[in-house]
Amino acid sequence: MDLTALNRIRVARSCADLGLSATSAPLAGGTWLFSEPQPELRELVDLTSMGWAPVEVHDDVLTIAATCTIRELVELAPITGWASQHLVQRCARSLVASEKIWDWATVGGNIALALPAGAMTSLAVALDATAVVWTPDGGERRQAVKDLVTGVRTTTLGPDEVLRSIEIDRATLAQPAAFGRVALTKEGRSGVIVVGRRTPDALVLTVTAGVTRPHRLGLTADPNPDDVARAVAAIDDWYDDPHGAPDWRAAMAGRLAERIRQELA
Ligand SMILES: Cc1cc2nc3c(=O)[nH]c(=O)nc-3n(C[C@H](O)[C@H](O)[C@H](O)COP(=O)(O)OP(=O)(O)OC[C@H]3O[C@@H](n4cnc5c(N)ncnc54)[C@H](O)[C@@H]3O)c2cc1C
User: Fold this and answer.
1) Looking at the domain assignment, is residue 2 inside a domain?
2) 258 alpha carbon to ligand 1 midpoint, in Å?
3) Does position 12 have pLDDT exceeding 90, yes or no?
4) Cα torsion for 167, 171, 172, 174, to the nearest 10°?
């Protein structure tokens, strides 16, 4: 779509080039930005020219650049010790029109957009990722992705802040995980996504897509079905749109959570 209110697209090559304002926005893959009118925007600042390595494997953390495309993440060679790498494929395939947008859509764009069906948010929250955010004074702040996404299309990102990357502890990557998703139609938008991860002393369930913001349910190492049902029942912000009614999403989340409990038992 032509964005007729725009005056310019600026190519950023360094932090100093970012200079965002209330009428400018970071441009990543552009798959959402160019999909609907943006009457309030005068300028886009292209982040894809920043030259950030898509993925960096360090001794203690895995860093995924905000500009890493979904295809780059999906096609990543197996990383030693990443027991839950299968989640990348499952989450990527949860996006509507998956492969059509994989080449352009980015991990950071998906998280910053904060749609309930943001499957890169599902992945990041399930793996306890930390968002590294560049602030306009040239500094950075860190926040759990779980807390960065606060609601439907809302985040803690200020208009002049940029999501630089997400970081995941290598120890977390080593933990076994299981994935569950339902949608009303075969290729439809996700109704609910539940990801389970087994830590040494807990079962951690992450519920997304069916809720307005990501939820983390911390359970004991060996919860019973009632524990899981109670934890899911405590969620009170089931999302309501044509892709699923709140009571259906709640019921499906309970079913997926119980299946994941059994799978990771
Ligand atoms: C056919 C189709 C199907 C889709 N299906 C889904 C779906 O199932 N689930 C879903 O969640 N989305 C879906 N989308 C929406 C969108 O394509 C994805 O969310 C995509 O991941 C956005 O990434 P992008 O890099 O293209 O972001 P852009 O379009 O470039 O940007 C999206 C928003 O994030 C901001 N932004 C981008 N990068 C950063 C950054 N690093 N720091 C701060 N702000 C930033 C932009 O300013 C903009 O406001 C779909 C889109 C299409 C066209």
Assistant:
1) no
2) 31
3) yes
4) 120
Q: What is the pTM of this model?
A: 0.97
What is the spatial distance between Cα 58 and Cα 63, in angstroms, rounded to a whole number? 8
Average pLDDT across the chain, whole number: 96
Within a 10 A sphere around the Cβ of 222, how many other Cβ atoms? 11
Beta carbons within 10 angstroms of residue 9's beta carbon: 13
Cα–Cα distance measured from residue 1 to residue 40, given in angstroms and rounded to the nearest whole number:
15
pLDDT 10s digits, 151-168: 999 999 999 999 999 999
Is residue 179 scored above 80 in pLDDT? yes
Residue 40 confidence class, pLDDT cut points 50, 70, 90 = very high
Q: Which atom of ligand 1 is nearest to the CA of 118?
A: 11
Range of the structural domain that residue 31 is part of = 8-49
Question: What are the distances in angstroms from CA 61 to CA 46, 81, 87, 130?
Answer: 27, 12, 17, 10
Ligand 1 closest atom vs CA 32: 29
- The CATH number covering residue 116 comes to 3.30.465.10
The Å distance, Cα 111 to ligand 1 centre, comes to 8
Q: Would you say residue 97 has pLDDT above 90?
A: no
Look at the alpha carbons of 209, 171, 230, 146 in this order and tell me if their dihedral is positive or negative.
negative
User: Ligand 1: which of 63, 93, 94, 113 to mutate, most ligand atoms within 8 Å of CB?
Assistant: 113
Residue 131 lies in a domain: yes
CA 91 to ligand 1 center in whole angstroms: 15
Report CA torsion sign: 218, 224, 228, 230.
negative
Output 93 or 4, whichever has higher pLDDT: 93
